[in-house]
Amino acid sequence: MIRKIVIAIVYITTVGMYAQDGTVSPYSFFGLGELKSGSTVENQMMGGIGVYADSVHLNLKNPAAYGKLGLEVMDREGLVVYTAGVSNKNYQLKSYTEEEKSSVTTLDYLALGFSLGKGLGMGFGVMPYSSVGYNLVEEQTNIDKSLVNIYNGEGGLNRVFYSVGYEVIKDLSIGATVNFNFGTIDAERLQQIEGIQFGTFDRRSSRINGFDFNYALNYSPLIKGRNRLHSSIRVNTQGNLISENSRQIGSFSIANGGNIEEIDVDLDAENLRNTEFKIPTTTTIGLGYGEDYKWFVGAEYSFQKMSSFENVFLGTENEMYKDASSYAFGAFITPDHDSFTSYLKRVTYRAGVRLDNTGMLIDNVDINNFGITFGLGLPLGRSFSNLNLGFEFGRRGTTRANLIEESYFKFNVGLSLNDRWFQKRKIN
Predict the structure, then answer these.
(1) Collapsed DSSP state (helix, strand, coil) of residue 281
(2) Pick from 130, 122, 121, 124: nearest CA to 110
(3) Which secondary-structure segment (H or E) carries 151?
(4) I want to staple 53 with a disulfide (CB 3.0 to 4.6 A). Which of 19, 65, 195, 341 is the partner?
(5) β partners of residue 15
């Protein structure tokens, strides 16, 4: 049964990764679009922290956690974990004068992890890295005529990753992930002037790909009795991305939308045919405390030198960056994961909060994000498999300086399924 479920998820995900519109946020107009969490529902519902690791769940943010797969779980040699997540995000977009609502459903990740022996684990998968999806209208009125600019964008980047983790000595694990990022971002500006039958367009497209790496170190010793200290440091190295660009300009008929003239811009002459941009290194420090499979509370701090980020082809004049940082706090509690009499006692209850200083400045105004998360981990039978439900309320941006305040509610569903990928033959 598990194999049939996994085959269905693989098919849906590989089709959906290319077909889905991952966002309707106006802030996906900037940078590489709206960046995705890059973590499982379990981690997202604890404020997105990745410092916690156990032997039966995947931690996509922390490759050192793969070193714990299969450990501390009796008779689980050859453990394999399948995990997949889907989310629905409802947006409420508000300016000083208008308010709109929209929603989008996306596939968030698909991954498999394996225990290869005591202290050694690996995993691989696919997930969206960023999403672009906006439709913005800007109207300027002069003394006698109005000028309307319409901005449209779609696309984003996907990510294929491979991770390995190893417990070097007891309670000390190291890990590494290699990420290959790829995708296309399309942007269009239409301009119309009142009383003129023709409008102009500017269409730009960037085909982007490149690698980055994530390194992690975990130290999680027992401190007192069954209580354990969790600590980690993760470094997501600078992503060096290459963009192959194209641009068309021209005019169109306002009456029927048909093109009147279209010209391919010679980007080679402007040295913009192939451009490079760098996603700055992100460093994350995490600390937590708890009892394995029972309870946990932790916090993380991340920082990134976003002031060095620049996209010379798709960037805008009112867009600037400064150094970014993020604070996250999360916790979970499982009343009694071995209970035979009460299902509710075997449920895992999670909660968290996070504050992201994105480093993005639009018209010299900081664009920050605040979110409150909570969720449930529902056991499936008597195994370590579970269905995870998550909820997030958040707010990004502001109505200052004619910007948009974005309030959102996100609902997540994730599956974490455990099986064995091999079993030794026993001879009596």
Answers:
(1) coil
(2) 124
(3) strand 146-169
(4) 65
(5) none
Residue 102 backbone dihedrals phi, psi, to 5 degrees: -160, 170
How far, in whole angstroms, is CA 33 from its chain's centroid? 11
Give dist(CA 255, CA 196) in Å, integer.
Answer: 11
The closest alpha carbon to 72, from 124, 123, 115, belongs to: 115
DSSP lists the bridge partners of residue 418 as 81
Q: Identify the residue whose tokens are 């479920």.
A: 5
Phi then psi for 272, rounded to 5 degrees?
A: -120, 5
With H, G, I as helix, E, B as strand and everything else as coil, classify residue 125: strand
- The model's pLDDT over 115-165, given as tens digits with 9 standing for 90+, comes to 988 889 999 999 999 999 999 888 887 767 788 999 999 999 999 999 999
pLDDT tens-digit readout, 244-265? 999 999 999 988 888 899 999 9
pTM tops 0.70, yes or no: yes
**Which is it for the CA torsion 124, 215, 157, 182, positive or negative?**
negative
Percent of the chain beyond pLDDT 70?
A: 91
**Strands in 20-119 per DSSP E:** 34-35, 79-94, 99-117
How long is the chain?
428
Cβ neighbour number for residue 337 with a 10 Å cutoff: 15
Measured between alpha carbons, how far is 342 from 338 in angstroms, rounded to an integer? 9
**pLDDT tens sequence across 69-78:** 877 654 445 6
- Report pLDDT for 77: 57
Q: How far is CA 293 from the centre of its chain?
A: 26
Q: What CA–CA distances, in Å, run from 133 to 35, 154, 159, 346? A: 12, 5, 18, 40
Domain positions in the chain are 2-128+164-174+213-240+276-420
Domain 2-128+164-174+213-240+276-420's class? Answer: mainly beta
Q: Which residues contact 383 (CB under 8 A, 6 or more apart)?
A: 418
Q: How many CB atoms lie within 10 A of CB 107?
A: 22
Burial zone of 10 (CB within 10 Å; 0-12 exposed, 13-18 middle, 19+ buried): middle
Helix (H, G, I), strand (E, B) or coil at 208: strand
Q: What are phi and psi of 423, to 5 degrees?
A: -145, 130
In one-letter notation, the amino acid at residue 360 is M
The whole-angstrom separation of Cα 129 and Cα 10 is 18
